[in-house]
Write a structure and sequence with these properties.
With about 325 residues, the chain is α/β, with parallel strands linked by helices. It has eight helices and 16 strands. The chain has two domains: about 130 residues, Jelly Rolls; about 180 residues, SGNH hydrolase (Rossmann fold), CATH 3.40.50. Strand 6 and strand 7 form a beta hairpin. The longest helix has 19 residues.
């Protein structure tokens, strides 16, 4: 039993738009205006527009096997497809070859299957095959919807499993559907608020910028303007929805001074901007241990172990806001 593109499309979440090209479904986690105008071809962040971080195919079946073909562009280390069933990972494959086929056994009986798409490449799946005669139905709707916005850490950088980014971990624990609009290297950017996301009405918006602003903004004033502008755009778009600002995590080189000022100066900018727009602040310094061993690069980006700390410690903050 091979799923049709219509069936497969009905299982996909995490995408602002899904188009069909050469017989394959291509999910985009940003609307067309952001892809083509805000980050057009030639822009340093344009490639991230095609990455499939946060995209999941989710369905219910009693099939004991699952097979699908996949494409990942560009090929590279750290890009993976992961398969889960009822909360347990059953398969994990790196995408270094650029294309291939994944085959895995699944547990007996009816279960919810999740196929996680790669976070730092453009992933596609096709010829999704279940046993002949197996059942197939859409999974029940999630309890919540969360929009994650941020830099490389939100994007999922350095997680060796697509399914173990902090965004995915938090979403699973909350039974939440997510859209992940993290972009590696990006800073506060008011123009990047995606106005084509009206189909996805989140229960919570999470914003995690600052560490790149501190390193690369040309002045203290420019960061102040960008942070205030970004929160203003988000508050205009989501006037009645909780917005969370996650202050930057510990980093090994935070003792230096940049054009923005000290690391604490940067944190103050975000706190003050958040206060102006009724944005809840979560202190990132309390989320991930201050030890280099939980960072893949020993200084900035959490590894998979570090992401577990991140998700576990972030969870209570989100739970509190979602229950209001």
């Amino acid at each position: 039993m091979i799923l049709t593109n219509e069936q497969l499309r009905s299982t996909l979440s995490g995408a602002a738009e899904i188009v069909e090209k050469d017989g394959k479904l291509v999910p985009y986690r940003y609307g067309k205006h952001v892809r083509d105008v805000i980050y057009p071809e030639g822009n340093g962040y344009h490639g991230a527009m095609f990455h499939t971080s946060g995209v999941i195919s989710r369905f219910v079946t009693d099939s004991k096997t699952l097979t699908f073909s996949w494409v990942s562009v560009p090929a590279g280390g750290g890009h993976t497809f992961d398969v889960w069933a009822d909360g347990v990972m059953y398969a994990h494959i790196g995408c270094g070859a650029g294309q291939g086929t994944l085959e895995t056994r699944l547990p007996e009986g009816s279960k919810t299957v999740e196929i996680y798409f790669p976070h730092h490449s453009a992933g596609q799946i096709y010829d999704v095959t279940l046993e002949e005669g197996a059942t197939f139905e859409n999974a029940p709707a999630r309890k919540y919807k969360i929009l994650f916005i941020g830099d490389s850490i939100t994007h999922g950088s350095t997680s060796t499993y697509a399914s173990m980014t902090y965004a995915h971990q938090v979403a699973r624990m909350l039974d939440a559907e997510l859209v992940n609009q993290g972009i590696g290297g990006e800073r506060f950017n008011p123009m990047a608020v995606d106005d084509e996301m009206d189909f996805f009405r989140p229960d919570l918006v999470s914003v995690a910028y600052g560490t790149n602003d501190w390193s690369h903004s040309s002045s203290h004033g420019r960061m102040v303007g960008a942070a205030n502008g970004h929160f203003a755009r988000l508050r205009d778009k989501y006037p009645d929805i909780p917005i969370v600002a996650i202050l930057p995590l510990w980093r090994a080189d935070m003792g230096r001074v940049t054009a923005v000022g000290t690391f604490e100066d940067m944190r103050t900018i975000i706190r003050e901007a958040a206060a102006r727009f009724d944005v809840t602040v979560v202190d990132g310094m309390e989320l991930v241990p201050h030890v280099t061993s939980v960072y893949a690069d020993q200084r900035l980006h959490p590894n998979t172990f570090g992401f577990q700390f991140y998700a576990d410690n972030l969870l209570p903050h989100f739970e509190k806001l979602l229950k209001k």
